[in-house]
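User: Study the fold:
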Amino acid sequence: MNFPEELFNRMQSYNMRLLSPKQTHEFVDSVIEFLFPLHGEKGLEMSHLCYEWERLQCLFADLLSSLEHLIDETPKDISQRFFAVIPSIHKQLLEEAAHFVQCDPAAKSTEEVILCYPGYYAIAIYRLANELYRIKIPLLPRVISEYAHIKTGIDIHPGATIGKNFYIDHGTGIVIGETTEIGDNVKIYQGVTLGAMYVEKKLQNTKRHPTIEDNVIIYAGSTILGGNTVIGRNTVVGGNVWLTESVAPNSVVYHKANVVIKNN
């Protein structure tokens, strides 16, 4: 069977001049490997790091070249701006790895956190994607975030605002929406949703997701919805709680269920 001309014409008219997900994933992997090198006994050499630094900038500029029709700045200028903040992102990620060790009794070292913890990996990718989101790079932050989502089961929109020392335990099934605001020293567990009350296109430019203030803990399976919902500082939200209204600071919120145990 010959290739259908009708299909060819449609593909021509909808030829997406956009970045390659595969190339984006390779770039993300390269950045993580650069920031947290597994160098064994050989140690680090400045010449090698300089070479990798230049290579990463070239990879990033190549990625951006496919978005030139959607951005105002040149790929080179954007690349320079992005890589200028990489040192501060790296410092923050090391601090967060140390915070994971302090929070989790099962964690024995920062190396273990960096290598083994999906929650930490998702946060690291978020920090990179969020920087690109803030400098208004189209599409690329979402592709980067979805890569972490695929690998970890943790869905953090790059537009979310997340403070320092964010801790995710286990993490599978976590959803954090675009306009979520999270303060410092917040802990959340698997299956938590920070979402919108409902989804309509007209809400695109409004705050749809909750605000979580400093030092809040949200246990597994809880759902907190709405742009006007604020969970006050120092609050503990127990497991399987459903919240669509604000909670005052220093509160304890829990779902009460009747559990019956019978002897057979």
The CA atoms of residues 213 and 233 lie 5 Å apart.
